[in-house]
Amino acid sequence: MIKKHTAIFIATALFALPPATQAQSNTASGSFTFTLNPTLPPGDQVQVVGLTDFDFGSITASATQITPVPPQIDRLCFTRSGPGNVLVTVNQTNGSGGSGTTLSNGSSELGLNLVIIDPGPGTGRTMANGAAVSMVQSGTGCTNSSGDDIAHSMLLTPQPIPPASSATSGVFTGQFTITVAPQ
């Protein structure tokens, strides 16, 4: 996505020469050198601030009934040097793939609902694996210790562990990459 924006900016700079510059290269006689050094504006900088790992702790699963896994929530910030929204994509780098997100122990998986909530009384968006979602920027000066009125929140809710399941033992992990771009 960023390379695409870069290519568009370069093409625009090369084709948007003032008429006097274009005429200068057409009317010269003899030998001369024309050097074009376009100065492109700095790109719009977008970043994720304050993202930390989540730890669900140890959970003892029941052999006879479903075992809920307590959800975890943390704050993070999507900052941008210019105006406009931020395009956020979450990609799971382990798991079975597809649009769902999971926690895996290598032999079995638990579904994982991953929601990012806008600052303030914001909208929560369920993030599908690999799908880009438009989000507002976090508030000015945002850090992961900022309040809900400035920071985004990430809520992770694993599906309950079924009774007598192969998912009752082992360390379950999920590894995700969050990519942000200007929109």
Annotate the secondary structure layout.
Elements: H1 2-15, H2 19-27, E1 46-49, E2 72-80, E3 86-92, E4 101-104, E5 109-117, E6 124-126, E7 132-135, E8 152-158, E9 176-182
CATH architecture of the largest domain: Sandwich
What name is given to the CATH topology of the largest domain? Immunoglobulin-like
What is the distance, rounded to the nearest whole angstrom, between the alpha carbons of the first and last residues? 10 Å
* DSSP E strands, number: 9
> Helical region count?
2
The helix content is: 10-25%
Structural class comes to alpha+beta
Describe what is shown at a glance.
With 183 residues, the protein is of the alpha+beta class.
Q: What do these coordinates show?
A:
The strands form two sheets. Strands 1, 2, 4, 5, 6 and 8 form a six-stranded antiparallel beta sheet that branches. Strands 7-3-9 form a three-stranded antiparallel beta sheet, with no helix packed on it. It folds into two domains: 43 residues, no CATH class; 137 residues, Immunoglobulin-like, CATH 2.60.40. It is elongated. The chain is of the alpha+beta class. The N terminus is likely disordered. Helices cover 13% and strands 30% of the residues.
